[in-house]
Design brief:
The complex is a heterodimer of chains A (334) and B (550).
Chain A (H helix, E strand, L loop, with lengths): L2 H39 L14 H10 L6 H9 L3 E3 L5 E3 L20 H36 L4 H15 L2 H15 L11 H30 L3 H8 L4 H13 L1 H15 L3 H6 L6 H9 L3 H29 L7
Antiparallel strand pairs in A: 1-2
Helix pairs in contact in A: 1-13, 4-5, 4-7, 4-10, 5-7, 6-7, 7-9, 7-10, 8-9, 10-13, 12-13
Chain B lengths: L6 H7 L9 H22 L7 E4 L15 H10 L4 E3 L6 E3 L2 E6 L5 E6 L13 H12 L17 H5 L11 E5 L2 E5 L7 H6 L8 H7 L15 E7 L3 E6 L13 E5 L4 H9 L5 E2 L7 H7 L5 E14 L9 H9 L3 H9 L4 E2 L21 H10 L11 E6 L2 H18 L3 E6 L1 H9 L5 E7 L6 H4 L16 H11 L4 H18 L3 E12 L5 E2 L15 E2 L2
Parallel strand pairs in B: 1-10, 1-11, 14-15, 14-16
Antiparallel strand pairs in B: 2-3, 4-5, 5-7, 6-7, 8-9, 9-10, 12-16, 12-17, 13-17, 18-19
Helix pairs in contact in B: 10-12, 16-17
The chains are: A mainly alpha (334), B alpha+beta (550).
Chain lengths: 334, 550
Amino acid sequence: MSIPSLQSAERNDDMYFLKRLLFLIPLILVITFLAFLLVKIAPGNPFDTERAKASPEIERALKARYHLDEPFLKQYLRYLGLCWEKDAEGQWHWAKGGLIKGDLGLSTKYRNHTVNDIVRQGLPVSLTLGLLAFLFAQGIGIPLGFFTAMRRGQWSDYAGSFFAVLAVCIPGFVVAPMLIMFVAIKWRIFPAALWETPWHAILPSIALGLYFAGRISRLMREGMSNVLHEGFITTARAKGCSEMGVVFKHALRIAILPVVSYSGPLLADLLTGSFVVESIFNIPGIGVFMVNSSLNKDHLMTMGLVLLYAVLLLVMNLIVDFSYTLLDRRVKYE
Amino acid sequence: MIPARDAYDVLAGMNHPRRSGGFLPACFSFIVLLLAGFLFVGCVKNEPRADLTIINGAEPQSIDPATISGQPDGRVAGALFEGLTRLNPKTAIPEPGLAERWEISPDGRTYTFHLRSNLVWSTGDPITADDVVWSWRRVVDPFTASEYAGQMFFLRNAEDIATGKIKDLTQLGVHALDARTLRVDLIAPAAFFLDLCAFRTLAILPRKTIEKYGDQWLMARPMPTSGAYTLDFWRIRDKIRVRKNPLYWDAANTMSEIVDFLPIDSQAAAFNLYETGQADIIWDKGLVPNELLDVLRKRRDVHFFDYLGTEFYRYNVTNPPFADVRVRKALALAVDKKRLVEKITKGGEKTASSFTPPATANYQPPEGLGYDPALARKLLAEAGYPGGKGFRVIRYLTTNAKTSVQIAVELQEMWKRELGIIVEIEQKEWKVYLAEQSALNYDLSRSGWIGDYNDANTFLDMFMANNGNNRTGWANPRYDALLNQANQLSDVKRRAEILREAETLLIRDELPIVPLYFRTGVNFFDPERIEGIYFNLLDEHPIAPIRRKK
């Protein structure tokens, strides 16, 4: 393979990723539109309460405050920040707020908070917890998968694989209470809930990451087992590569590809919080809002979180695809 | 597909055991990363421990007294802001708050309040009669969108302002006579007006801050408060911390310096925190799993008490077969209420014969229908459905809350067994449930009501024909007339008789609703360690007297 052709291939890759980056903008627009449409057609009204409003005027005032009395399209444009309106003196004004100015709007459920405010408070917590769980999952999963693949057929392979299957089979809402029952309540090693000191982060990270550790371990094991049969490994061995070199330099970077492609969406998923783990440990992240805001018909809150998740997911996928080109030279994008 | 073991596997796995040496370094590097992550978490907060930590139920939707409706919201708001009166922590009877005394005109329609001298906000500015007038006008102003604006409707012109008929807020029946004196004009001699003055909605709020910051005024610093505490911070779904207000008129009786409210809606998390000593008090019935109540009942730190709340179900009386009162009675008579409280709720709830709890002040509710399956079958046959024949499948609307669903299943079984009626349970998420109920899109609907003040009116007025809380389609001119008549009376005894007559219509003669049981409250706290919490009918526990014994 000559050097110039390699360079041109890389330039193609650059163009490809630039195009994909640009393509994100219309994609996000489509996502916001669909999400906006869905939250609006879902049944229920954010202002329905067990107690009737004292007067219809009050409900009208509430709707006006959140602009829910406007036509759908105007509400959508206002959300995007592309709405112009006439004021009392007949002057046209660019409406306040909107997505393009970084304003996610007001929460209808939590009247004293804006969506930005809630995300600003909750996102760092969810990011930290998600990242810890991600590291835990990778830190356990990759070595375990690697180890079991190398020891295929031995008892340690069976033990490791059994653990991986167990981790995949037991859902978080079982792991978390068990961890709390034994580690927090019986043995009093770590706190049972809340988010204050580093000790508070340990149990939730494990509860959140364990399932993914199992998944990653299995992906890693399969990947490794398959790659060790490939022709280029034989070639490397025939060339006299040390076994260390074969495994770490040649096999691992291919074997890890399934893990890498799995990790992108996984990271996006973990970083935006988990409803189950955040509720069980009462962690002030945004995972709980993801579910509750749609139950509460807190439209803009739902919109903000959907958007956040969508952007993270798209970016992560882009990063994954990009990292493919670094790990496997055979992968080319046009 | 994984090929069978071959030479490479043997080569890779067995002959080179040193390869697995990569495992340890890999683990090590991740452990380092994890530790770094944990340290990062640790850097975030460095707060002193609170003197009192309370598990308060769901995250408050707001803590602006004028707009709140939830109980957890009210407990925080009550620590920060006070009204003209406040409720006694032991009895929940109103006592002087920001007002030190008042005079009531002989006809019971005019109140003159005298504010305490040297009343100040937590920032040191004086609290004046104008602040009271402004705070109350804000509640009835439709622009504020106060859920509880109805609490003000006994004031002159309040209802017309809230419904937009009067635009001029100064028409509201409250006026400042001087900096410390207020005159309040009522449309009827409301016997419970002093109770209302202690209600959160009528609390006195800082005008300048609210006008400057709008809906985000609670985040402003300094944020002036009129109550026993000031707001240190409010981190959503994390913690609300309040700190003693040294300028509060009764600061000498504020027992804890720093109080934390933990917004927790998960039963498991609440209980785990309490059990591991990270919280001192749980005070939300929703936070105690019913399954555990049998075991917990025996503990000395679990306290059950009665309060003014009724669980019931509504009939949609606009549709057959429930347009027929005999059918409504038949279903009611087939319900074994005792079984519901013994098998499901288990919190020592009492079965409800009437809608108004018997503990309500100055009132003795009438006796409703009992449990009589034989009579139930007879009534159903009279209505044309002997043994349930010809009765269409009916829908029972409920929320997806666990207890409500369990009760629905139990009722379904009772009606099938006793009357041969088939009931479909429709579980709806909260907001959808409320919308369907309001739209009368149901046959039977699970319902609950908690009294706002200790008077029968808070229960009975909701079934007046034009009340938004009616939600049954039931309209009875005689019922409306009785309630209106009662609320014009200042003679307590005569008033109670008339209200009783109205309630008889509601729960014995006409039956648009069937009361099931009265709610109990549950508090968790160790009386050896915590003092200052008393039990009362309104489940009202002011924060100031509560403290942890050192």
